[in-house]
Structures are given as C-alpha cells and as structure tokens.
C-alpha cells in the first residue's frame, strides 16, 4: 500500500498527465509545494515500487498499476469534495478538509460515502430536507 505522501504524488502525477499530457519534476514540485529534489527522490521510490517509469531528462510515465491507482485517488478526492459540498460545507474549507481526510479513510468508507452522495443526488427533496435541518439549526438572529 502506498503511504499518504506517495498517494499525493501519484494523484498529482496522474492529474498532470491527464491535463497536460506529461508530468515534469518541476510541475510536480509546484503542485505539491515541495523541493524538486524531494520529487526526484519520491519519483525514484515510485519507480522502484512499479507505479511509474522514470528516466532522468526524459520524464516519467505511469505504469498500469500507477494509472489504476492514480485514477482511484483522483476519484476519491473528487468524491469527497462532492460529498462535503453536498452536505453544505463552506467552499473555502472543502479543499483543505479533503486533503486532510482522504488518506485516512478505508475504501469501504469511500464506497459507502459514494452511496450517500448518490442517495442525496437522486432526489432533490432529500437535499432540501437536509438544508431544512441546517436552517433550523442556525442560531436565531
Ligand atoms: Mn487530494
């Protein structure tokens, strides 16, 4: 199993390749706000663990194992963002909160949250009822 840090790298590399077609060490460093030397080190570890193939000066490509993992990690991040947004979490908290929790949930919990997101989206009345509870809980003026 990849560590949380490895997950962050695989997630970002997958996103960069998806949006730009490639993932340079400098772009990964920018995205994760770390030093390029740390990226090089981690990329070598991910290469050793067969998540990607890295050739100095030639860039890197995800293996099928890395692609599969990247796809799951991006799905997980997007699902959790969607979940927090649906339950009414303030927009300014969403990204940071997802970054805080995403590595610490089992895939079992992720799947059940996926069910709940589906449940809430299937019928507008369900979301409306949730909003009603939230309005009732608000402090009176
Ligand atoms: Mn993330």
UniProtKB/TrEMBL annotation:
Keywords: Activator, Cytoplasm, DNA-binding, Manganese, Metal-binding, Repressor, Transcription, Transcription regulation. The keyword Cytoplasm applies. SMART domains: HTH_DTXR. Residues 1-63 form the HTH dtxR-type domain. Homodimer. Gene3D superfamilies: Iron dependent repressor, metal binding and dimerisation domain, Winged helix-like DNA-binding domain superfamily/Winged helix DNA-binding domain. Central regulator of manganese homeostasis. NCBIfam families: PRK03902.1. It is found in: Cytoplasm. Pfam families: Fe_dep_repr_C, Fe_dep_repress. Belongs to the DtxR/MntR family. Mn(2+) 2 binds at residues 11, 77, 99, 102. DNA binding is strongly activated by Mn(2+). Mn(2+) 1 binds at residues 8, 99, 102-103. This is HTH-type transcriptional regulator MntR. Signal peptide: none annotated.
